[in-house]
Hints:
The chain is mostly helical and 221 residues long. 86% of the residues lie in helices and 0% in strands. It is built from 5 helices and no strands. It has helices at 3-10, 25-138, 141-169, 176-208, 216-220. The longest helix has 114 residues, at 25-138.
Amino acid sequence: xxxxxxxxxxxxxxxxxxFPPAHGRRDMEVMRSCVISHMSEGISRRKIEDIEKVLAVYxxxxxxxxxxxxxxxxxxxTNLEVVENEKSKEIHPLKKKNSSLRKSCExxxxxxxxxxxxxxxxxxxxxxTQHDVVENYKTSSEYQQDLxxxxxxxxxxxxxxxxxxxSTEHPGINPHxxxxxxxxxxxxxxxxxxxxxxxxxxxxxxADDPLQGExxxxxxx
Length: 221
């Protein structure tokens, strides 16, 4: 056995990938496709393992997040229950106040309705008695006094307005002359009234004189 035989015998478990040149290009392509397929399977297997590891890590993180969310939800529910209890305690007296206020409003509304009825009754009574009251007032002495006072006040206001008009429209005229005119007019009116009274007295005296009459002249003779 030569050296080549020894080498071949020692490496009998290693496949001989050498092809005689006679097999040609076709055999090389078949071998290449086998090698590529084997390498692809290895690469795919390693990728699958990596993906499984990543998925395992992701699943652990998801579980951790789920646990955190569950705990947070429990805390939130507990806090909400506490808040609801506190709010219910605060709302209960408010409900009582609202109920009492509603009752007070209803009572007030009832009183207002009663007062409106009373006012309507009073208006009706006043409407029926107003005419009688006015007529009684007109026939009283108080009405005459009020009427005289109102007339004097109206005259005073009229005189004041007239003087103001004279001062405004005729600045050259002394408004006090109007007072003098009124005084003279009043004096003349008094003189005229006195003259009329004197004439009336004279006529009355003449009618009562016994020397005057149908035969008054013969008696004097």
